[in-house]
Write a structure and sequence with these properties.
- This protein is 40% helix and 34% strand.
- The chain is α+β, with helices and mostly antiparallel strands.
- The protein has two domains: 109 residues, GOLD domain (Jelly Rolls, Sandwich), CATH 2.60.120; 48 residues.
- The longest helix has 72 residues.
- The radius of gyration is 31 Å and the shape is elongated.
- It is found in: Endoplasmic reticulum membrane; Membrane.
- It is a single-pass type I membrane protein.
Length: 196
Amino acid sequence: FHIGEREEKCIIEDIPSDTLVVGNYKVQRWDIHKHDFLESAPGLGMFVTVTSPTGEVLLSKLYGPQGTFSFTSYLSGEHIICFQSNSTRFAVIAGSRLRIHLDIRVGEHFLDESAIQAKDKVNEVNVRLEHLIEQIHHVTREQDYEREREEKFRKTSEETNSNILWWAIVQTLILLSVGIWQIKSLRDFFIAKKLV
């Protein structure tokens, strides 16, 4: 994505609780002379701020023009990840555009292949088995979180349907009472004018 040099850009990620999130990014600055983005942006860094669903700041750190950040969510919900450059140029001068390449991995756990190769075959199987068990736990947490969201959505839908039903009943009663009142008023009018 592209942002201005002094602009802040935020991304919302829906993350289950107790989940590791790893993000890699790279910043490129627009070069006016080449009319292209430079391969790197030396001297330019990024403030990365991560906010939990309750508004608590989980991570607030300055990184370089390219880096990796990570955090663990302790609550399920929408986490806000914000990026802003550390440019010190005045707002009038700082009109440069930045391109940010971002890769966010939610719940991934990486195996260190060199460490696995150094161990014997029994340990390799053991490490891979532990990794699979950890991934199974992650999938289970993800499914539990999706079930919670589905249950909340179902309750909201049922409440809405119930409210619509009651509103329809109230409208019908009002319509019937207005109709009865109109018939009675017309009947009384005709009787008073001796048309009936």
